[in-house]
Specification:
The chain has one domain: Neuraminidase (6 Propeller). 8% of the residues lie in helices and 38% in strands. It has helices spanning 5-14, 82-85, 308-311, 315-318, 331-337; strands at 20-22, 31-34, 41-46, 51-55, 62-64, 72-73, 88-94, 101-108, 114-117, 125-128, 135-140, 150-154, 158-162, 168-173, 180-183, 196-200, 205-209, 215-220, 224-229, 243-249, 252-256, 268-272, 277-283, 288-295, 299-306.
Amino acid sequence: MNMPAKTYSRFAALVLAASVVCPAMATVTFSPFVASTGGSPIGFAYAGNKFVGSNYFNNQLYQTDLSGASVAAFGAPLPIGSGSIGEVYVSSSLGLGGFGARDVFAGSEAAGTVYKFNNDGTGQVAFATGLIGGVRSIAFDPYGLYGNDMIVATSAGRIYRITSLGVVTQLASTGEDTEGLSFAPQAFGPVPSGTLVVASEGSGSLRAVAPDGSLTPITTIASAEMVSFVPLNLGVSGNPLEGFYAANYSVNVIKSPYTDFTSYLGDMIVTGEVTHQVWDVSWNGSSFVSSLIGTFPNQPEDGIFVTAAILNPGCERTNTCGGGSVPEPGSLTLLGLGLLGLAGTRRALHRS
């Protein structure tokens, strides 16, 4: 689906340069999910029947079971030495746009290459190469405004679209290191539904990226590390995997229950790497409003919401997200045990 250019022209004209900062609101709470990743946790991705993660300066990905336990090596080490690999970003595909369901993709800030693994860790290949700047985040368009392509941001500020065949096209350039990636689940003030929003930690800038590559500023959050829109269907599946998860560098991986975010459906959640703060950004009808809603126990890295649409990609289109269904392998066992899960996290530490 393509958005007419005139729609984005109106969008750019409407967004205000200033935003409103409000007092602290309801506090978001966190609890440990993965007690130890065997290193300093950075990336973490939900991959259907497992989670796959990365540690800082370590080229060996790891996996856990759906309870966050049974940590073990995943696949072959990335072909970049651990001494230079730095931050490693991990994501898994949604089974949309020609991509397989829950294949694993990883990249490092040390190189402009995205590597692909089969879901079981076999078949490592260089999937996309020649990106300008090191890989800083990987995400998949869930709504179709960007053709359900993979979206990659780099340390050089380049934003790329990559098809399921590995064809790379530059979408935009922010001109600065860019990490956070998320997609608006509905119209976000003047930002059209499905639009990509990116975060740049150095300036704290949050920008909307139109399908034609044009950039529009939204607001600024100090040291903006991660951006995640609160999904509209948060909590509807009845699956205990639902919630908000993030790497709590350098200690563990943590979770916040989905009930902490039900007041913020459709809003944008932003974390500050240096401040450790969690912000809610909403639209009040005339401007964007930023409200402090929590604090990480340590340094926040990337995070994401696990919802019915993550557990069962495409369910929004078929109206099958609710009803307490538990679509993923192993989830019935988790329901019986009352265990929790973790979503895909794709970015990693920007060294202070």
